[in-house]
Each structure stands twice: as C-alpha cells, then as structure tokens.
Amino acid sequence: RLSCIRNNTWLASCGVLSSGLAVLSSFGLLLFCGVPFVVTVANAPFLILGVGVDDMFIMIASWEQSTRKKDKSSVKSLLAETYAEAALSVTITTLTDVLAFFIGTWTSFPSVRSFCIYTGTAFIFCYVYTLTFFGAVLVLNHKREQGNRHWLSCMRVGVDEDQAEKSCLYNVCCIGSCSGQPSQPESEHPMSIFFKKYYGPFLTNKWIKVLMVLLYGAYLGSSVYGCTRIREGIDLRNLAHDDSYIIPYYDDDEKYFSTYGPRVMVVVTESVDYWNETVRLGIESCAQNLE
C-alpha cells in the first residue's frame, strides 16, 4: 500500500518469518529425535515457505474484510471474525499436505522417507505458528494503525506545527510525506475492487462459463495425455544417505565410466541347462552377436 500507515511491509515480513520459525522448530525437533537428515530435505523449506505465505495472505485478506465491518470494532471481535473465515481454509490446506507427506513415509527409500517426515512435520509447525504467532502480529499491526503510527519507524504520524523547520527525512518518517501533508488511510485495496466489480461479473456470464468448461476439458485431456507420455528420471545418488557406501560408487562410476554409455544386459527368463556344452556355446554365440 502507498499509505505510510496502511503499508503492510512488516506484516508480510513476519509472515515469512513465521514459515522460517516452523522450519527451524520442526528440523530441530527431528534432529534432536535422531531422524536422519539427507540432502533432499534441503528442498523442504521452499515448500513450507510457499504454503506459509499462502496462509498469510488468507489471514490478511480475512482480517481486512473484518475491519471493514462497522459492528466489529473490538480486537477480540476482529480476531474471532478473522479466524472464523480463514482458519477453515488454512486447516484443510494443512491437513491435505500433512496427509500427503506422511503417506510418503511408507516408501522403501530411506531418503524419501526422511524428506516426507521433515516436510510433514514442518507443515504442522507452520500451521501452529500461523494461528498463534502471526495472529498476534495481526493484532499488533492493527494497534499500530489505530495509533496512526508510521509503518517503518512506528512514530506517530501527524502534522507538526514546526514541520517547516524539520528535514524531509523527518517528515517522511513522522508525517508521511516530504511535503508535510499527512496521508489518508486507504479504504479498500484496488485489487479487491477489480475482482469484485469486474472479474467476478465477467466470470459469471453464461457464455464465459461454457468457455471455461470447454477450456478445462481441453486442459484435463492434455494432462491425461501428458501423464501417459511422462518418463521417469531420478538421480539415484540423491536417494542414499550421505555416509552410505554407494555414494563413492556412483561418484567413481560417473568419473571413470560415464563416457562408455549405458550398460547392455541380457536376461534369460527360463531355465537353462548350463551343464550342457551346446547351451553354453549358444549363449557365448549370442553374446558375440550382441557385441
């Protein structure tokens, strides 16, 4: 926001901090419990950050809607209204993510199992921090706005009688603008107005609904086709523990034998009488032909 009071920079930063606290708490707990840490777990914080920021936006949007209602003036009423609107969405998102990753712990790959344990636990902590830590930050930010304080310096914004004698930097931090004129609080975000007055009515048009259904059908068909054409590929080195004996093997294999191309193997799927000399000669002849 352009308003020096309604700017939510610190609020957004605390939302990112909430995700970081969830990662630190969950990783610290699991490391304390002795759960193995593998290199693939290093990707988990990015997933937690994505879900945590999404939950943050849901909380802020619900808080903004609650503050516009005149009958919800007290902080308790505003926070109760916010949780009533946002907690259900946040809870469902967390439950589905946690369930998905904890199902992944059933895999036979130890590294994948560790990744799922760390990520699923981090989602639980992210949920807890969103409903506790970030909720408290919302209230503190609301009190700052109610006190007419600047978003950066938290100093009270207002016209100073001696502002002409003050520097431009002082006026920006304490009054809101270099000219000394206090900025007025904004009512509703322009993005909310766009979706409510223009985008929503556009999508509810019956012809647009038909077009959306057709586009979704085409998207679904292409997705099913893509799933049938997808090829599996994974670096087996990342599926082993850091201290596993197989890590040096993959390193040496890549260093010394990667230029020779893939290995060709022949599998005999039936019983073979290796004691018969004729059978052995036939196998050797087959190998020579392949070479």
Automatic annotation (TrEMBL):
<dbReference type="GO" id="GO:0016020">
    <property type="term" value="C:membrane"/>
</dbReference>
<feature type="domain" description="SSD">
    <location>
        <begin position="1"/>
        <end position="140"/>
    </location>
</feature>
<dbReference type="InterPro" id="IPR051697">
    <property type="entry name" value="Patched_domain-protein"/>
</dbReference>
<protein>
    <submittedName>
        <fullName>PTHD3 protein</fullName>
    </submittedName>
</protein>
<feature type="transmembrane region" description="Helical">
    <location>
        <begin position="12"/>
        <end position="38"/>
    </location>
</feature>
<keyword id="KW-0325">Glycoprotein</keyword>
<keyword id="KW-1133">Transmembrane helix</keyword>
<comment type="similarity">
    <text>Belongs to the patched family.</text>
</comment>
<keyword id="KW-0472">Membrane</keyword>
<feature type="transmembrane region" description="Helical">
    <location>
        <begin position="83"/>
        <end position="105"/>
    </location>
</feature>
<dbReference type="Pfam" id="PF02460">
    <property type="entry name" value="Patched"/>
</dbReference>
<feature type="transmembrane region" description="Helical">
    <location>
        <begin position="117"/>
        <end position="140"/>
    </location>
</feature>
<keyword id="KW-0812">Transmembrane</keyword>
<dbReference type="InterPro" id="IPR003392">
    <property type="entry name" value="PTHD_SSD"/>
</dbReference>
<dbReference type="InterPro" id="IPR000731">
    <property type="entry name" value="SSD"/>
</dbReference>
<feature type="transmembrane region" description="Helical">
    <location>
        <begin position="44"/>
        <end position="63"/>
    </location>
</feature>
